[in-house]
Amino acid sequence: MKKLSIVVPVWNEEKNIGELITRIHIALKNKKIQYEIIFIDDHSSDKTVEAINLYKNNYPVVVFPK
User: Fold this and answer.
1) Gap between the Cα atoms of 47 and 12, Å rounded
2) Residue among 1, 63, 64, 56 at smallest CA distance from 28
3) Taking CA 65 as the corner, what is the angle to CA 62 and CA 66, rounded to the nearest 5 degrees?
4) Starting from the edge strand earliest in sequence, which strands make up the sheet with 61-64, in order?
5) Could you read off the pLDDT of 4-42 as tens digits, one per residue?
6) Checking phi first, is residue 60 left (phi over 0); if not, alpha (psi -120 to 50) or beta?
7) Is 55 helix (H, G, I), strand (E, B) or coil?
8) DSSP per residue, 21-33
9) Does the pLDDT at position 2 exceed 80?
10) Which of 25, 30, 54, 65 counts the highest number of beta carbons within 10 A?
């Protein structure tokens, strides 16, 4: 099985995180590619980090800084 790390820089993307994670998951699952999404947060002033953390139990996501 192929493995892929996707690095995504984010800043104030709270409203877009869910759709992004879902689209990546669907695209790669259909191709049978194992993946992780690494989000790099640039000091968002909204709840971007919290939104990402909501997906940790169901998707292979990590966010920095934590």
Assistant:
1) 7
2) 1
3) 65
4) 2-10, 33-41, 61-64
5) 999 999 999 999 999 999 999 999 998 999 999 999 999
6) beta
7) coil
8) HHHHHHHHHHTTE
9) no
10) 25
DSSP string, 38-52: EEEE---SSSHHHHH
> Alpha-carbon distance 1 to 53, whole Å?
26
Asked whether the beta carbons of 61 and 39 are under 8 A apart, the reply is yes
Chain mean position to CA 65? 13
Contact 65/34 with Cβ under 8 angstroms? no
Q: How far apart are CA 7 and CA 18, in angstroms?
A: 16
